Predict the structure of 1,3-beta-glucanosyltransferase.
Amino acid sequence: MISSTLVKAGVAAIAAATTAVAASLPAISAVGNKFFDPSGKQFFIKGIAYQLIPHDPLMDTEQCTLDAKAMKTLGANTIRVYHVDPTADHDGCMAAFADNGIYILVDLDDFATDIDPLAPTWNDSQYKAYSAIFDVFAKYTNTLGVFIGNEVIARANQSESAPYIKAATRDMKAYRDKKGFRNIPVGYSAADIAELRPMLQDYLVCGDTADTADFFGLNAYEWCEAGNDFQTSGYKTLDDMAQGYPVPIFFSETGCNTARPRLFLDQNAILGPDMNDLWSGAIVYEWIEEKNNYGLISYGPPQGEKTGTNIEDGFLRKGTPTPVQPDFSNLQAVWKTNNPTGTAKSAYTPKLTAPACPKSTAGGWLLDGDVALPTLNQIFTASPTNKPTDVGKNQNPTATSTDSSAPTGTNGAVAVGRELSGMTGALAAVVVGFAALL
Ligand SMILES: *[C@@H]1O[C@H](CO)[C@@H](O)[C@H](O)[C@H]1NC(C)=O
Ligand SMILES: *[C@@H]1O[C@H](CO)[C@@H](O)[C@H](O)[C@H]1NC(C)=O
């Protein structure tokens, strides 16, 4: 116990010292479909999903310092954090990561505020919650970007919630600009759903650029067999579907764990010549070992039924990170051999055209073209009058708004609501037909 107290005191002293002299990392910006540092060197993500505890892993400077050092050894330059508490102090953790050359991608949503695909909303309370997190993280130069959501659309039949993702993107970009933040990219992290490929990724970047995502992250667990390669893994298909993509695209989660040990050979494809002309790297899932067996480190043996301050769900959430081997070393080795230089900003003049907004497809993408987006607080409910025969060119579904100042919309928007989840295929087809009329 004495020794661990001493170690802790030592770490606290180091943490205090590093906070005082915290280096700030040069801010990364997005140009065309690439990320660049201020010197004009292209930036490729070598990232780790980092969420030790459900609500905010960026409050404990001592822990962040231990983890950031271990991540530097691993070769990581980015972490992805899913949930943070905007009222907490993040200075120590952000400095600890900056000192170790590590950027942060952070989600603006939280459990209570994310967009529910079955009853999508984009409302004042969400706007306030997202902007509170944006306010906090905008001041750190090692904030690489923010996510509007993670896998909001989790099933093929939830594509009609996409206008809400885009509305949130539109409003957070406008908020960033209004507040005078630097041009921190605002993007989305998508589940890899075969029926929605590539419609979702195209939809989020089509149409008016005021509404579009600044980057697209794909959570893909396709490279699952030890013998997989660029072709057999499915990555070639992903790559084909992303040709000409106008904004940075990367894997926001990857690292299938069904073949053990994990070899992470997909990193050779992503960061190597097969994909690095288009993709900006990957985030490996995940730092801490827990029940799902995706961990790269652990803070001690599984705790079974034990409970305690630093134990959650049977695993220690704090302590000295101990590599899970050989996985940790395997990832370290593939990252060490993949150091793409990419394109210099000075030699890069993007000539990229946004894709057209996708047409609806039977049993797949349910939005037809560039449907109007909901305004803040606007909720559309399907109603019997939403039939194509009843709707003239300029008629709209009823908008119920909690904010009387919110316009009810003159362009209409696709009907989305909880009602939809109970619809039969025939009624859903009517709704799609309606969308087509707009
Ligand atoms: C706003 O959205 C959140 C998240 O979906 C929801 O919990 C809340 O009830 C909504 N508030 C209003 C006033 O609709
Ligand atoms: C959506 O798909 C899931 C299965 O993927 C199914 O359980 C659910 O009932 C479907 N919802 C609708 C509205 O069809």
